[in-house]
Predict the structure of GAF domain-containing protein.
Amino acid sequence: MARNFFKESPFKTLISFHKLIEALEAIAVTNVDYRANYATALLKEIAPLPEFRTGIEDLRIISENETLIKHLLADLFPTALTNNEIKAVTIPFQNFTFNYTERFKKIVSEAGVLFDMAIRDFNEHQFYIMSCTLILNAIYGQKIDFNKPLFYDIPNKKGIMNQYRILYNADFLEIIATEKAPKLSQDDIDLLMDNYDNLALWKEKFPIESWILKGFGIAILFDATTESSISKLKSNLLKPEKEQIELQENFQSIFRSIFKITDLRVGVIVYNEEEDKFVKPTLNDKSLTSFILADSEEVACKNALFSCSFENLLENKKIISISNVEKFAQQPENQILGNHLLKQNIQSCIFAPILKNGLLLGVVELVSGYPRELNSINACKLDLILPYLIDTVERYNSDMQNQIEAIIQREYTAIHPSVYWKFRREAVDYFETSSHNKGFIFKEIVFKEVYPLFGQIDIKGSSEHRNECVKEDLKNQISALIHLFKNQESKINLVLLEQRKFELDSLLTQLELPLKADTEQQIQLYIENEIHPILNNSEAGSTEALLVDNYFESIDKKSGLFYQSRKKFDNAISIINKKLASLLDKKQIEAQNIYPHYYERFKTDGVEHNLYIGSSIAPSKPFDTLYLHNLRLWQLQTLCEMEIKHHQLKLSLPYELDVTGLILVFSSPISIRFRMDEKRFDVDGTCNARYEVVKKRIDKATIKGSSERITAKEKITIVYSHTNEETEYLNYIKFLQFKKILEPTVEQFEVEELQGISGLKAIRVKISNEHRKQIPHNFSYQDLLDELN
């Protein structure tokens, strides 16, 4: 008899067979002789024990009368079913049982003397509340659903934990109120139903032992090991990774309960489709066991280890079950895999594919040290488990991809798709070794033997335009301040006012001269320190104060200066940059179809771009210089289209800004390296530095023997070094002239020597005015401004 009562209860419990005795008394007076005689004899035996009717408080009476109680309960515990049913007498929710069936006795006996028969995850708080709900339902007519599944976890003789679901029969129980039991109103009941966690409130409404629970209950158990284990597995797999505690140990315990195999071991591997290999997943800085990989972190699917043995799994997506590994290994084609398993003391095993929409995500491995323990028959149990493993592995893959993306973004910044694969490979290496090598050093990404292409559309004279806007804003602000001072002569010390007016007039005169580098800063400091303090002393409500308020509303909050003209100019620059960059980006997507290549662009006062093409960027595709020539023609035509797009915009902008086009031709392959400190690509090595120097200096270069810039408005300038480059681009120009994109005139000249660079030549061609006229103008400045904002 198991005795383990909860200390506090709303019930005073009396074990009583009064309802059963009353039933026997009714049978004793029937006309069925054998039933009447049986009932009469049994009533005679229990007559000396009035406690059986009034209620037993001393549990020794139960232990001293086990045989009599067994006879009394014979109709409820039939002998024919004693080896099949798992049943005992109990008090609901109490860890107290007696009068077991033979199967129940056997289960408890195999559990051992150290086994404590207690309901799983059931504490005193839950016991008290659920006892109270019995009273609410039985006495107050409530319909509270407290049917929480209750389980006993009982180990078998092999040490495998089995889970038994508990069902209660309360037909022989009676609930009686004592004088200590308060009468409850509906408001009291509503209050209780909203305060499950307030145990003190429940004890106030249902004081300890204020009710009598008289009679007995019957606990009926059924083996729910498989269902419960799957539920536990599902709950564990759904937890966030941070909360998954000892996942490997939980896996094995759950799987052992499902398969009833004491030494069952579990492994999982993930399939990497991109590289056609199996890899070991890493969770909580602890790798799950894999018996296929053993000590390796990854194995290619074409490895000799698998041979034809894994054909069913990899190609047909079928489960592999080997019931006798030793016999399996005797076949020549299976020796490698068989011996690999035998070295790990594996005598039987199951390898099951984890599939999602027909795609292989991974493999779950079940192994045992005994032959025939695992086989194709019990492999069917995996059908109950695999759906949850599929979701988990899919979530793992998704999380891994997100983390890899985060690593790439953090360590390398946004990466162009053409070179993304190489960054991803490095990030995967980091991800797979992060738990083992905290000092992982990221490699610099290098692409060798690539051909560079540089081009730009530059806004001509943007610096001069910007300076004129600055001067205009400064003049307007100083004029506004002089006007304010004329209206404040009666309020301010005349000597100081005259001094400030004189200084402001001097600044206006100074602004008639070319703008110096520090002029704007000097004027800003003067206005902030000398002028604004005077204006801030204006009397509130006066006419002068209103003028001052209007003035302060006109200045930029960050700089303290007027910003109207510069804002218009900056908006115009931004509109041009946005439209031209958008066109370039759109055309660049099409250019990737020529051959995958690296592309980057920058917005300054205009748009410039770098392209790099070569076999190292797309190693899976054969490279030919034909792709380079195609890309050069695409670049020239795209710059023409960008200049035409600008011509459309120019008519809608508040400033008439012209643009120039420039292409640098460089036929020698170079190497580029991703600079980890700068998060960008740059040429690699001093031998490749000439290209970068030319690219940075060519923009300001002049025609040899003159002061004229090599770039000009509405024209594309192509700078080159070799005659074969000249021939190539003259052919491109003829083609674009045929398409009426370029005018017939072609200028050719030498470029003035740059510092350390000589021998450069250039071709200059103008965009056709006829082609521009064919493009309709359909922009308004306000529409462009709205789109920008």
Observations:
- Residues 463-563 form one domain.
- The chain has four domains: 11-16+55-226, 239-390, 463-563, 569-788.
- The first strand starts at residue 2 and ends at 4.
- The first helix runs from residue 18 to 28.
